[in-house]
Amino acid sequence: VQLQASGGGLVQAGGSLRLSCAASGRTFSTYAGGWFRQAPGKEREFVSAIRWSGNTYYADSVKGRFTISRDNAKNTVYLQMNSLNSEDTAVYYCAVSKKPYADYLTFEAYNYWGQGTLVTVSS
What we know:
Layout: E1 3-6, E2 9-12, E3 17-23, E4 32-38, E5 45-50, E6 56-58, E7 66-71, E8 76-81, E9 90-97, E10 112-113, E11 117-122
Parallel strand pairs: 2-11
Antiparallel strand pairs: 1-3, 3-8, 4-5, 4-9, 5-6, 7-8, 9-10, 9-11
């Protein structure tokens, strides 16, 4: 599985962006998808995940502002980010897990990672 993340860029505080993560492979519908981010000088952290069943998970810091979704027909996971603030500035990474049951909030749950896409929020 290869992942291609896109959609990052420069946005003003309060603005929105939508990240996309396109996956190759024919069994995407059974995989879980996740987003992590790494801010300058900080460790990579969990942002959001979506199970094959559609159940979603969010970090407390983004709950109510970010929405994860998936389109299995397009093999793509999305992250809609609203009300962005400077603390959301980071490189965002998408990931896919083949494991049907796992703690999708952790790095170890994921088998494949995409390249990062930079999100910069200006104040």
